[in-house]
Each structure stands twice: as structure tokens, then as C-alpha cells.
Amino acid sequence: MIPRIIATGSAVPEKIVTNDDLSRHMDTSDEWIRTRTGIRERRISEEAPEQKLFSLSREAAERAIAMAQEEFGAEFSARTGQQGFSREDIELVIVATCTPDMAFPATACRLQDALQLGPAAAFDLSLACTGFVAALNTAAAFIQCGRYRTVLIVGADVMSRMIDWSDRNSAVLFGDGAGAAILSGDPRFSREGSGFLDLVMHADGSGTEALKCRAMYFNEAEPAREYMDGRRVFEFAVKKVPEVIREVLARNEKEPSDISLYVLHQANYRILESVAKRLSEPMEKFPHNIESYGNTTAGSIPILLDELNRSGRLEAGDLLCLAGFGGGLSYAAALLWW
Ligand code: UT7
After folding, report:
1. Cα 234 to ligand 1 centre (Å)
2. Distance 230 CA to ligand 1 centre (A)
3. Which is the closest atom of ligand 1 to the Cα of 171?
């Protein structure tokens, strides 16, 4: 079975925090943040601690399910002689996150119940900013080997829960958000020429010190705080992201110019510019929303994908390249025909 993304959804908190808001509490400025990162504002969750990640994930997933039902119908169709998309079709839920509300149960299990997905399998995985691409890889592999037909994947993070608001180096970078995609190899939802092509993932664990956060339940008296050696991570990203994109392209005898759009993790606008330059590709092929949401970690790629999908920027036959990078240090690139 060839998996394809049949629907997308996303959700961000209502509360907007602008660069000017931040500059009232710390020694920073809108000018510095905009020119160094491209960020203008971010969204911050105000939900109760045990609901933050769950409620964003649920909203994003509900939107993806609604899109699938709009596209394929929710009931049996006399016209096609087929059952439309039902919640029962989802056999597995994977949530990629590094900021769960609880150590356990897995957020995916809470979703399975809240979304009424029948006895679907469910688990979380953790790979920081590369998490969504790792979930995509896992879901695609399960579908390709015939184990499951339809998988709901969610990339979501509430980085605000581990931000040190007194540290201007990283407090200005992150925001909260969730994105979801339904991946299916079911022939009922197939479309000629559309589907997952290939994916390459790597990790360089020698860089774990450059980007890390203690487990949140480790010491309640001293909350876990994210640490990042920004320079080092920046240098890693601008070198490794073009490399892994070239690797997946070469494996499939494609060139950068064959790609319609590069849907990259949104960590810094300057990283997008550098990757575009190294691939000799125009910036028009690198859509971005970092200006509105900051870095939402595992949420950034699926949120952007959903925005592109809903605004009609994705056309049948487009070859998309998705690439994630971050904590691990991990990096991955996927190719898919839309
Ligand atoms: O999603 C996971 C992957 N994450 C990333 O890919 C992030 C990669 N790193 C980056 O995007 C960039 O390195 C940052 C945006 C984090 C930092 O940008 P930079 O151009 O590398 O700045 P820097 O850390 O070298 O700092 C330059 C100066 C320093 O001052 P001095 O030492 O030159 O006087 C910083 O103290 O800017 C200062 N600075 C700030 N000034 C105002 C650092 N943060 C701020 C701030 N406001 N928020």
C-alpha cells in the first residue's frame, strides 16, 4: 500500500504574545527578534497544565478528521458504492511531542478516547523538532508493511512550559501549537500519482548537549528549562538540512528543481534562507509562518502543511519535500507526491 496524506488540521492557542510584549519584560527588542529570526509574534497556551498539549492536539486532529469527512463523506455513498471516511478507519494514533502534559498515559491514548477512535493502537514518540517527520516515517512504514491502513499523526508542543522567561536567548524563539495529518494507504482514499515517496532520517548524538531539557517530572521544586547553544544548532542546521535533502533526492533520482515546495521546520527564517541558497533554489519555494507562531517544535511542519493545504497552495502532482531538524541532534527529510 502506498500511504498518502488525505487530510490535515492544526490548532494554536488564542493568546498572542508579540515581540514588543516580550521586550517589556526582558532586555530584547522587536528589531532584534525580527532581523535575527523572522519572528513577530507567537501563541502561548493558557490552559490548565494537564490539558495544554492534549487540547491543542485534539483540536488539530478533529480538524483533520472533519476535512477527511468533507472530502470522502462520512456515510455510505450510493454514488460510489463505498463507505466514506469514518473515525473507525483510524487504526493507529501517533503523537510526536517533547512537552507532554503527563509522563504517562501517552497523549495518543487520551486522543484515542476523546476522538472516539474505537480500539485503535496509540503511542507517543519524542524527537523534538524532528518529531513530526519521525511520526510520518513510522506511520508510512506501518502502512507500507500492511500492518495498518490509516494512521492519525499529530506533531504538537507546548514549549512555553519549559521556557525560562528570564533568558532572552531562547525565550523569544518558541511558541505553542499542534498540527495533524491523516495518512492512509486505503484504496478508498487513494488518488492517482499521490503518495509517500521516501524518507531519510539521521541522528548525531554527539550534539545532545547543544539542545536539551531535563524531564519535567524530575524535580518539581526546580522546573525543567530548555537550554540551547543557538550558534551551534544554527551551524548544524544550515549544513545538515541541505545534506539530508540532497540525500533523499539523490536516492530517488531527483533534483532540487523537481521540488514544488519545501516544507521545513520553522526555527529561524535565516535558516530557511541559507538552505534555499545552498540548494540554489528560490525563497518562493520555502513557505513560512515563523513570523506568526515562532518555533513550535514538533508542531511547525504540520501547522505549515495544513495552512498550505487549506489555502489551496498544494496542487495534485506537486512533489513536496518536508524536513525537520533539532534536538538529538536529529535531522530528516521526506519526499511525497501531493
Ligand atoms: O528548533 C530547534 C532548532 N533550533 C534552531 O535551529 C535555532 C538555531 N539558532 C538560531 O536560530 C540562532 O542562533 C539564534 C536566533 C538562537 C541566535 O541568533 P544569533 O545570530 O546566533 O545570535 P547570538 O546567539 O550569536 O547572539 C548575538 C548577540 C549576543 O550579544 P553579544 O554577545 O554579541 O553582545 C546576544 O547576547 O545577540 C544577543 N542576544 C539578544 N539580544 C537581544 C541574544 N538573544 C537576544 C535577544 N534580544 N532576544
Report:
1. 9
2. 6
3. 48
Name the residue of 23, 169, 296, 297 whose CB sits within 8 Å of the most ligand 1 atoms, as the mutation to test its pocket. Answer: 169
Splitting the chain (338 residues) into consecutive groups of 10 residues, what average pLDDT does each group show? 96 98 94 98 96 98 98 85 92 97 96 95 98 98 97 97 87 97 96 95 95 80 86 96 98 98 98 98 98 98 98 97 97 98
Answer whether 0.85 is exceeded by the pTM: yes
Q: Output the 3-class SS for the chain.
A: CCCEEEEEEEECCCCEEEHHHHHCCCCCCHHHHHHHHCCCEEECCCCCCCCHHHHHHHHHHHHHHHHHHHHHCCCEECCCCEECCCHHHCCEEEEECCCCCCCCCCHHHHHHHHCCCCCCEEEEECCHHHHHHHHHHHHHHHHHCCCCCEEEEEEEEEHHHHCCCCCHHHHCCECEEEEEEEEECCHHHCCCCCEEEEEEEEECHHHHHHEECCCCCCCCCCCCCCEECHHHHHHHHHHHHHHHHHHHHHHCCCCHHHCCEEEECCCCHHHHHHHHHHCCCCHHHCCCCHHHHCECHHHHHHHHHHHHHHCCCCCCCCEEEEEEEECCCEEEEEEEEC
Q: Is 295 a catalytic residue?
A: yes
CA–centroid distance, residue 178 to ligand 1 (Å)? 25
